[in-house]
Amino acid sequence: xxxxxxxxxxxxxxxxxxxxxxxxxxxxxxxxxxxxxxxxxxxxxxxxxxxxxxxxxxxxxxxxxxxxxxxxxxxxxxxxxxxxxxxxxxxxxxxxxxxxxxxxxxxxxxxxxxxxxxxxxxxxxxxxxxxxxxxxxxxxxxxxxxxxxxxxxxxxxxxxxxxxxxxxxxxxxxxxxxxxxxxxxxxxxxxxxxxxxxxxxxxxxxxx
Length: 208
Prior knowledge:
The chain is mainly beta. The chain has helices at residues 69-82, 202-205, and strands at residues 2-5, 13-17, 26-31, 34-39, 45-51, 63-65, 96-106, 114-121, 124-130, 140-144, 159-161, 164-166, 169-170. Helices cover 9% and strands 34% of the residues.
């Protein structure tokens, strides 16, 4: 689940993205200050727009924001009062973490992509398809997990690249908009001492 807010340019509207809409056609159902966006083919809810959200909670930050369980409970009150029965389930897990490539093989249908097994927690390994020229087994980097929003607004959801499933993205310094990022292709390379699963901290993991 992705919460995004930009009062200066969008207004006092909290956008809540709960699923990848893919290429499906969408429709909206609005009740009061709450709008549900859903797929026309199966009626699945993919997002909510909550207008005048400051009436319910105070939001700090711009772009992707993290909310507390108490704030999400307030949003669920807003949905219920508007007449919707669905509820939001908060996800407080970090979305940018230190990962380590533990296995890698060439993509069978590409001359530049690799299928990587990336450890993102002590007990969790994700398959990520990547084209970074510096990807290699043992490399530690920053991984954007499903549910992440990149600095430019791109959303990270599970997907496929040329028929191979991919569950995140290994990030370059440019994609993370880090200061003094090199203007060349390649994912960020962290110290071997970096701890897998640690939330991304620009000062700690970049500091240039």
